[in-house]
Write a structure and sequence with these properties.
The chain crosses the membrane at residues 50-69. It holds the Pfam family FAD_binding_3. Residues 1-27 are annotated as: Disordered. Residues 332-404 form the FAD-binding domain. This protein has 459 residues and is α+β, with helices and mostly antiparallel strands. It has a domain at 52-117 and 163-223 and 332-458: FAD/NAD(P)-binding domain (3-Layer(bba) Sandwich), CATH 3.50.50. The protein is built from 14 helices and 19 strands. The protein has helices spanning 59-70, 95-104, 106-115, 162-170, 213-216, 238-245, 247-251, 297-303, 308-317, 345-348, 357-373, 383-412, 423-438, 442-458; strands spanning 3-8, 51-55, 75-78, 90-92, 131-137, 146-151, 159-161, 178-179, 184-190, 193-198, 203-206, 225-237, 254-258, 261-268, 273-281, 292-293, 323-328, 336-337, 340-343. The strands form 4 sheets. An 8-stranded mixed sheet has the order 6-5-13-14-15-12-17-16, with helices on both faces. Strand 13 (254-258) and strand 14 (261-268) form a beta hairpin. The two termini are 35 Å apart. The structure holds flavin-adenine dinucleotide. Residues 1-3, 23, 26, 28-29, 55-61, 78-81, 91-93, 182-184, 344-346, 352, 355-359, 361 line the site of flavin-adenine dinucleotide.
Length: 459
């Protein structure tokens, strides 16, 4: 899971023969361009004299591409996959990233808003419009009772199918700038720019790129690590959900909190389906080479035996007992090195316990597109200052999200130090975590980075 970028000055095409870097194979996520030739309205009439090359057309890469094209910054995208095969699981974007969308390009927010499911899609549930999740006790004396109705102002819970969002974003990007079947295999940065190697034997010269951390940080531990949790996942029909847990629990996004595990459900596809996940804390190491391992139904039942009747009902209806390991990336010392920078999961993949990973990729794309558009950035060499400022502003926040997402799992599993299952402390801590995440001044973040960038350009 990586997204990286590079840029090329016109006419710069000198091959290098060294390949000091090699990438590990990331998971395949693929798509097809189905909508030819698009006109993204340009906000800037003067085109930048360099091309940003984005490696990886996931959520972060595509949104950055749309933001740059709108600002008349030339872009090329190299994607490892050949066609779109994204699985249709749900995705939810929080308020800060939602506020960043129109600032990157209003079309992104229009697309998002046209695809989302909200509580108002269920008749009679308009009153939950601003609810993010109801947090409900999974078991014990208060089994099924809400701990709190956690609001996300102003939008409430908004969810969509990842594949629908990605497909619509692809539709904003001209087909002729996307190159499929190009898996980056290595890079070399010399004085004149960066050369990229793909696994089909082709090479591309570029002079700015957001690239894989393994290449930038050879001495650091950069590989994802097992976070000590695995999950079971499913998409269920709304009718089955209502049978399983009753109408209120099926139609309102719910987090079931329990000792050592938690479960989550939220409506998707105009409330016709419900995305369900059950996450288990485990002291054992992940003893498998892949991120998903086969398991038996008995394992799933054993893992959730203390989680009360609601979770039991869900688990009984989940068709696939496969276990999904939850990985996270260790904090790294920089997201940018010279003309190389990384964004999205490549920089700060987090656990999913706050639903914030894609939102962080969107915030990254917002800051990068605004900095690269700045009139101070005249030549490819200036991008070094933009990337440095991007790193300084985005790294602390996105790394804190990684930490706070993991802490959120402990909260949900009622084992956070100093909080446990204390009702008042749980309420306070949930509020603190999420308001810190959501109440960001997104444009202020850009201005802070712009100021830093101006300082680097002067020095
Ligand atoms: C179970 C789960 C639930 C989640 N739920 C949420 C949620 O509700 N809300 C939320 O905000 N986030 C959520 N996330 C996180 C979110 O999915 C990611 O943070 C987001 O997709 C990151 O986007 P990205 O563009 O950085 O990476 P990706 O979307 O992974 O895209 C990377 C792209 O790069 C390509 N690529 C990789 N390597 C190469 C290479 N060497 N050469 C060329 N191309 C390459 C890949 O094929 C892919 O297309 C969840 C994650 C998980 C696992």
């Amino acid at each position: 899971m990586s997204t990286f970028v590079s840029a090329r000055n016109p006419g710069q095409d000198k091959p290098h023969n060294q390949s000091p870097f090699h990438l590990e194979q990331p998971p395949n996520i693929t798509y097809t361009i189905h909508s030819p030739g698009h006109s993204i309205p340009m906000s800037n009439t003067t085109q930048k004299p360099f091309t940003i090359t984005i490696i990886g057309g996931g959520i972060g890469g595509l949104i950055l591409a749309v933001g740059l094209l709108r600002r008349n910054v030339p872009v090329q995208i190299y994607e490892a996959a050949f066609s779109f095969t994204e699985i249709g699981l749900g995705l939810s974007i929080g308020p800060a990233a939602h506020r960043a969308m129109p600032l990157i390009d209003p079309q992104i927010q229009n697309i998002y808003d046209s695809l989302i499911t909200t509580h108002a899609d269920s008749p009679d549930y308009e009153g939950y419009r601003q609810t993010w999740f109801e947090i409900v006790w999974a078991s014990g004396l208060k089994e099924g009772d809400p701990l709190m109705d956690l609001k996300a102002l102003p939008s409430g819970q908004t969810t969509l199918r990842r594949a629908d969002f990605l497909d619509a974003l692809v539709g904003l990007v001209p087909a002729d700038i996307v190159h499929f079947g190009k898996r980056l295999d290595g890079l070399f940065e010399g004085e004149e720019g960066v050369q990229l190697w793909f696994d089909d034997g082709t090479k591309v010269n570029a002079d700015v790129k957001s690239m894989v951390k393994e290449l930038m940080l050879e001495e650091e531990r950069t590989k994802p690590r097992y976070s000590g949790m695995y999950g079971y996942r499913a998409v269920l029909d709304m009718k089955d959900m209502v049978d399983a847990v009753g109408e209120q629990r099926a139609k309102v996004s719910t987090m079931y909190i329990g000792h050592g595990a938690y479960a989550i459900s939220y409506p998707i596809m105009r409330a016709q389906k419900v995305n369900v996940g059950v996450y288990i804390l485990s002291d054992d190491e992940w003893d498998c080479d892949t991120w998903v391992r086969k398991a038996k139904r008995e394992d799933m039942l054993l893992d959730t035996e203390n989680m009360g009747r609601y979770v039991k009902s869900l688990v009984e209806r989940m068709p696939d007992p496969s276990q999904w390991a939850i990985f996270e990336h260790p904090h790294i010392s920089t997201f940018a090195k010279s003309r190389v920078a990384i964004l999205g999961d490549a920089a700060h993949a987090s656990t999913p316990h706050q639903g914030a990973g894609a939102g962080q990729a969107i915030e990254d794309a917002h800051v990068l597109s605004e900095l690269l558009d700045d009139s101070c950035i005249k030549f490819a060499k200036d991008v070094v200052a933009a990337f440095k400022a991007y790193d300084e502003v985005r790294r602390p926040r996105s790394q804190r999200v990684v930490t706070s997402s993991k802490e959120n799992a402990y909260l949900l599993c009622l084992c956070m130090d100093g909080v446990g299952d204390n009702e008042a402390k749980l309420k306070d801590t949930f509020q603190q975590h999420l308001h810190w995440l959501w109440d960001l001044d997104v444009q202020g973040q850009v201005e802070e980075a712009r100021e830093k960038m101006a300082g680097y350009l002067e020095s």
